[in-house]
C-alpha cells in the first residue's frame, strides 16, 4: 500500500491506489503508523543491543530484524549474547509477532469521527 502511494505521488496522482482501486486515506495513515512504529522499535532495540553487546553493528541489526520479523534466521551470535541480550531478542520476537497486528487493531478501535474540521492549508514539500 505504501509503495503504491509513493509511486502514485511521484506520478502526480491525487488519490493513491492500485489494481483499479483507491486506498482510503485512513488506511494509508494506519499503514504509515505501523511502519514508523516498527522502524522506531527496531532502531531502539539495535541501539540498546549496541550498548549491551560486543558485536558488529550489522550482526546486531540482522539479529534484530530477524527477531522482529520472526523469520528464524541468525548470524550465529545469538548463543553468545549476554542474558540482557537474550531477553531483548525474546521481547523483540514477541512484539514482532503480536505488535503490528495489535497496533492495527488498536488504531481501528480508536477511530472516532470528529465533530469539527480544521481549515486546510497547503504546504511546500521538498
Order of helices and strands: HEEHHH
- The whole-number mean of residue pLDDT values reads 84
Q: List unreliable stretches of 5+ residues.
A: none
Helical fraction: 55-70%
Q: What radius of gyration results from the CA coordinates?
A: 19 Å
Q: Approximately how much beta-strand content do the residues carry?
A: under 5%
Descriptive overview:
A hairpin with a 2-residue loop joins strand 1 and strand 2 (about 20). The chain has helices spanning about 1-10, 25-50, 55-70, 85-110, and strands at about 15-20, 20. The chain has a domain at about 30-105. The model has no long low-confidence stretch (mean pLDDT about 85). It is elongated and about 55 Å long. It has about 130 residues and is mainly alpha-helical. The longest helix has 28 residues, at about 25-50.
Short summary:
This protein has 126 residues and is mostly helical.
List keywords for this structure.
126 residues; 2 strands; mainly alpha; single chain; 61% helix; elongated; two-stranded antiparallel sheet
